[in-house]
Amino acid sequence: MQHRTVQDLMTHGVVHARQDTPFKAVAAMLADNDITAVPVVDDRNCPIGVVSEADLLRHEAVLPDPEGHAPALRLGTRDRGRAEADTAGGLMSAPAITARPHWNVVEAARAMDRHKVKRLPVVDETGQLVGIVSRSDLLRVFLRQDTAICEEITREVLHRVLRVGPGAVGVTVADGVVTLRGRVTSKSLIPIAVRLCRAVDGVVTVHEELGFDTDDSEARASEKPNAVGVIGYTGRH
After folding, report:
1. CA dihedral 226, 229, 231, 233 (to 10 degrees)
2. Which single residue of 48, 103, 149, 204 could bond 176 by disulfide (Cβ 3.0 to 4.6 Å)?
3. Considering the domain 6-141 in this protein, what is its CATH number?
């Protein structure tokens, strides 16, 4: 199965700042390019941090309320230093959490979730900036047409990987929700089929209404994990 990678989804022409880029220049970059953050790079074009709208707004948030309606914002020493900075190097969140072009959507999404970030600068093998991928970029996989999802599941998952005979299992896809109906040779194939279908780009969830000819669950439980080659496909999810 072919999965879209960060390389396929990322923005290639990346607007970026240097450490000495002034506050107002960073604000202009965001406004002029209709973006919400820019990576900050060093002299080698390697990302060292990211400046976002939130970082710029922090600068305003620490100022006294001119009408006295809101109490002063209390920040730690580090955050106050960033709030009072006037260049990208002082404003940025660091270090930069980066992705690689060959990562799949799952790897990039997990990195964003783990580090609580909305975007990842993408670097090559030398660490240099080659793109940026955002949460909205990753969500583009769910815009994939239902017909394309159905064709890939039928051709790649059922026929090529699981060797399910033509017509044995029917596939319907509606708004990314996959339903499998039919019959397979053994009970152990059912969870494998579900996991493989969930791994197809654009699939939201999978429902199965599958019967089986042989209940091999007890026999499979006693086998070694790699005894059947297709099990290797389940390690991704």
Report:
1. 130
2. 204
3. 3.10.580.10
